[in-house]
Design goal:
Largest sheet: 6 strands, antiparallel
Keywords: Signal
Shape: globular
Distance between the termini: 59 Å
Strand order of the largest sheet: 2-1-3-17-6-11
Pfam family, one: Por_Secre_tail
Order of helices and strands: EEHEEEEEEEEEEEHEEEEEEEEEEEE
Organism: Chryseobacterium zhengzhouense
Protein name: T9SS type A sorting domain-containing protein
InterPro entries: Secre_tail
Strand content: over 45%
Number of helices: 2
């Protein structure tokens, strides 16, 4: 069986398109051209890519879920993520190594600090064992602060939905093209169990051509296996809002328009609420412990905002609301 180079899945209204690149990349480019020639009404509003998409690869790296402090970078060439150009990247997630058959963690697990940075970067074959040298332009911090991962929320590596736990960004990142660098810095967590995510080996062709990665060890920075990663994006910040009042048929946001207080009612427990302005900047954030979350909005200026709600499993849903 031939190994695929990468795969990107895009969802269109009434249509799902999966692009699978192979070592004969001409076929992939043909498929890519077909997508760009689709009528404008098929334009993706919410989309995701699972990289690198190769088969029969199950190497490991404990970085994203390590209980020790970690700093590492993953480099992605432009070609595998070209359909994300001029879209906002909103979150990422990883998959446990396939040999793990039980969900993680066994108990609620907290990272004292978990930071994610995005930027343009050098081509993956030109990776340097120097974090700063791999960055082109300015790094953008998209996530910071402590991170609590609820028990059992990271499914086993052989699960039918191995990317279920989502690292939701505080600020969506506008990807304008070029090579991408995702850098993660965290302080480790308070759980004695350390689990690896699924990766491809550093020696594979795809890992030296389209993807690469490096991490900080005690004796310096070294290359490591590229982790399988799901990248989620929206066409625009308005793409974060499915409906202005009812969301996912299970949540309601009211009143809308709002003056002083905004309420969220739904079937799932909401643990965190964030508000973004039209520029994608997070301007309000609130941890929630109430059955019906209540957010004070009197300090907001009149205009359109985006409300992001994160449930106890780390999943995110969003809506647009108007402050009057």
């Amino acid at each position: 069986m031939k190994k695929s180079l990468f795969s990107i899945a895009y969802s269109f209204p009434g249509l799902s398109v999966i692009l699978i690149g192979k070592r004969n990349i001409g076929l992939w480019l043909t498929a890519l051209l077909f997508v760009f020639l689709l009528p404008s009404n098929f334009k993706a509003q919410g989309s995701f890519g699972i990289l690198p998409g190769v088969t029969n690869e199950d190497a490991a790296f404990p970085g994203p879920y390590s209980n020790a402090p970690r700093q590492f970078q993953i480099l992605i060439a432009h070609v595998p993520i070209s359909l994300f150009t001029n879209k906002y990247i909103t979150s990422i997630s990883f998959s446990l190594q396939g040999s793990y058959t039980n969900a993680w963690p066994l108990t609620d697990t907290t990272f004292g600090s978990y930071e994610i940075y995005l930027s343009k970067g050098v081509p993956p074959p030109n990776i340097q064992m120097n974090f700063a040298a791999n960055i082109v332009g300015t790094q953008t911090m998209v996530k910071s602060g402590s991170l609590m991962i609820p028990a059992g929320s990271v499914p086993a590596g052989n699960s039918s939905n191995p990317y279920a736990y989502t690292l939701v960004f505080d600020t969506p990142y506008l990807y304008t093209g070029g090579n991408l660098v995702i850098e993660i810095r965290h302080t480790g967590h308070n759980n004695p169990v350390d689990v690896p995510v699924r990766t491809i080996d550093t020696n594979t062709m795809v890992n030296t051509t389209y993807f690469s990665a490096c991490w900080q060890q005690d004796n310096g920075i070294t290359k490591f296996n590229f982790p399988f990663i799901r990248i989620n994006s929206v066409q625009s910040l308005e793409g974060l809002g499915v409906k202005s009042v009812t969301i996912d048929e299970g949540f309601s946001v009211y009143p809308n328009p709002v003056k002083d207080y905004l309420y969220v009612k739904g079937d799932k427990e909401i643990t965190e609420i964030n508000v973004f302005n039209a520029a994608g900047q997070k301007i309000l954030s609130q941890k929630n412990k109430a059955n019906v979350p209540k957010l004070g909005t009197s300090s907001l200026s009149k205009g359109v905002y985006f409300l992001q709600m994160i449930d106890q499993e780390g999943n995110s849903t969003s809506a647009k609301f108007v402050k009057e």
